[in-house]
Structure formats: structure tokens, C-alpha cells
Amino acid sequence: MYHRTLSATDARRLHGFLMVCEDGRQIYEEAAAHTDDPGLQKLLTDQASTRSKTINALKPRYELHSGEQLHHPRSVQGLLQQWCIELGQRFGSEHAALSVLFSQLEKLEDHTLNMLYKTIRQIESGLLAKELSEQIVLVLESHHRLKQLKATYRL
């Protein structure tokens, strides 16, 4: 039996952030599987790995203290981002496809970073806020890598 030490509100907020990370992981993995560009594929795989690290760091805390297994129903936002990426890849020129891809991935990065900051500000547990704060560096590095690669493609 699990011992609940997170408030229901904190558990819900942590769950929301973890779902944003899981959406990102799935989107990055899917996009990496559909590109032939080795540099882009490496970036996408690295981004998925960063999301996995964040999830793996926080998931046990959520499951232990909420008393629930983490499950991921795909969010509408995640589905829409994936759909935009697929449309860009299928119907555009290579440059147009990359432009759509990077536009959606930037939105994903911005949303993840904003969600992390919002969750940290709203969380009641000081210990959980500290654990979330430790993820800022990973998320910022991920954000920076995406912007660097976008610049190399001149998009």
C-alpha cells in the first residue's frame, strides 16, 4: 500500500507536467523515426531521451506519493502537434516540412518550459518544487539544442 504524502492538487499538477513531457517524448520519437537526416534524427532522439530522463526522475515520486500508476492518455495538444508534423512531412517541400516541424517542436519546447515554471510556482510541497527545479537545466538545454539546430537549417 502506498503512503500519500502529496496533496491531491500537487499530484494533479505533477501529473499534468509529466503528461506534457510524455507527449514530447512520443512526438520526438515519432519524428525521429520519419526523418532521413542524421543530424535531425540525432537531435530528435536526444530530445526524446531528455524527456525520458525528466519522466524517470519524477514518475516514481508521483506513483509513490499519489498511490496511482502513471498512465498517459494522449492529450489533444499532443495529437494536434503530431498531426501538424506529419502534414508538413507529407505534403510540403523539404524546407516547408522542416519549417513546420521546427515550428511545432518550438511550441512544444516553449509549452514544456512554461508548464515546468508554472508547476514549480503552484506546487505546495517544497521538496517536490525542489525536485522539479532540478529539471530546469535539462529542459533549458533541450530548448537550446532545438534552437541551435533550427539556426543551422536557416529556418
TrEMBL record:
- Specify the DUF2383 domain's residue ranges: 14-121
Pfam family membership, one? DUF2383
InterPro entries cross-referenced by the UniProt entry = DUF2383, Ferritin-like
Q: What is this protein called?
A: DUF2383 domain-containing protein
User: Can you name the source organism?
Assistant: Pokkaliibacter plantistimulans
